[in-house]
Write a structure and sequence with these properties.
Shape: globular
Order of helices and strands: HHHEEHEEHHHHH
Number of helices: 9
Helix content: 40-55%
Strand order of the largest sheet: 1-2-4-3
Strand content: 5-15%
Radius of gyration: 22 Å
Distance between the termini: 84 Å
Number of domains: 1
Length: 217
């Protein structure tokens, strides 16, 4: 049967044309990354199931399992400095206090999902070692962590681009170049560590504004 008389032929041609080498490589990388980070994902799933039993919700969003609710909030509050945690990623699982926190941090946490796919079971030890190194350099062990530098460079969870600050940030930026992000392709070259972070839609200071007008006059 020729293509002229086969109604399915155009669809088959379109499918073959869509199978580019890059797409195949990305698909294979995603499968291998999923297997590679499965121990982290399993830990996240166990946490999600336990938290779901106490209420809240769980859903699959763009291939990532998202869980929120009182159980997650309760567990966060019992972690060191946990009251400041809005969301947390384990493999391909994201846990958050509320649905609003999931929405607010989604882009940021997707960067960490990509990092888990790349680093697999090595991610958590590498993350804590990086925080320790930054702390020894008198930097911020959280915002100066190279994994967070990449994530905050994409989204600081408040609608602005974040930046790593503090002493030791130059060394952090150098490390970030080796970290990158599997899903977005953002690397250290996009991060300028010496810039100060921009604040999120904060109202202008009326006193500062009046001083500025006086200087202009």
């Amino acid at each position: 049967m020729t293509s002229e008389t086969d109604p399915a032929a155009p669809r088959r041609r379109s499918f073959r044309e869509g199978l580019t080498l890059g797409g195949v490589v990305r698909g294979i990388g995603l499968v291998l990354g999923t297997v590679w980070t499965s121990p982290n994902t399993l830990l996240g799933l166990l946490w999600s199931v336990a938290a779901r039993c106490s209420g809240g919700g769980i859903a699959l969003v763009d291939g990532v399992i998202e869980t929120h609710g009182p159980g997650v909030a309760w567990s966060f509050d019992r972690m060191p400095n946990g009251r400041g945690i809005g969301a947390l990623t384990l493999g391909q699982v994201v846990l958050a206090r509320t649905a609003a926190d999931l929405e607010r941090t989604r882009r940021h946490e997707r960067v960490h999902v990509g990092q888990y796919l790349r680093w697999g079971p090595i991610f958590l030890p590498a993350y804590f070692l990086a925080s320790g190194w930054v702390a020894l350099r008198e930097g911020d062990p959280y915002r100066g962590n190279p994994f967070e530098v990449v994530a905050y460079a994409i989204d600081d969870c408040r609608g602005n681009v974040g930046r790593a600050t503090g002493r030791g940030s130059e060394q952090v930026a150098a490390v970030v170049g080796a970290v990158g992000d599997l899903s977005s392709g953002v690397t250290a070259e996009a991060v300028e560590p010496n810039e100060t972070p921009r604040e999120s839609s904060a109202p202008p200071d009326p006193l500062a504004s009046s001083h500025a007008k006086e200087r202009q006059a």
